[in-house]
Amino acid sequence: MGAMRIAVTGSTGLIGTALVRSLRTDGHEVVRLVRRPARAGDEVEWDPHRQYVDVAGLVGCEGVVNLAGAGVGARRWTDAYRKEIRDSRVLGTAAIAEAVASLDVPPRVLVCGSAIGYYGDTGERAVDEGAPPGDGFLAKMCVEWEEAAAPAEEAGVRTAFARTGLVVARKGGAWGRMFPLFKAGLGGRLGNGRQYWSFIALHDEVAALRHILDTESLSGPVNLTAPDPVTNREVTAAMGRALHRPTVFAVPAPALRIALGELAGDILSSQRVLPARLLESGFSFAFPSVDEAVGAALR
Fold it and tell me: What pTM was computed for the model?
């Protein structure tokens, strides 16, 4: 594809930073939506909570990638922070979708961040994009988050929901917090270690987002997870191998519940999610296995 003008929200986050770098390296023009007055030529002001977007900054954009949202693992889930997790995503997506729909010439594609939390706890059952939403706070939030994009869909914009798994990266995200623990020899399985973790290498996450931008046939939910989800026990073994550290510790489930509060439920729950639509559309993973993904993060 020729050079495009693409707007990105959440551009300072783990995925957004890597996506912006990748797009710019390939000669695309990126406009970053920032939650303060714009200070640079590539910035556009917006305020998810006030539902405000400086729409003029989106003129001429062929694609919009909406990755904004408060960190799910950043703090304890007080009621106030839970509201922040939800509102930052749902209100932010609504604001972007309304802005996109209001343009005389809307972008061709809107890629909205979403999460495999949509499916709830799937146990050992593998699910793809056809599975219904699960139960619990994250599943309900993901449903609302995706529904908030309706104005863009109704305006005829191809809208895709990137249901992202656990992104394997050295710094940032939940995985980034595991590296120092394992490096110190304190890594170990969580609970019984039998829960499935659907991971994706950061490189593949960015490549998949770009694949969605470029692939006209992709709209609706698209799972961004590697093709072979593994159990927490297998993740633990892979981390130990990569860092040459023993992984004899096991963190019992009750200890996790005390340390992590509600987030423990998600770390102990099992999500076995398959990237059916990515694979059908011809996407190929650079780091499909957990060993390759961990190795890529360490390079």
Answer: 0.94
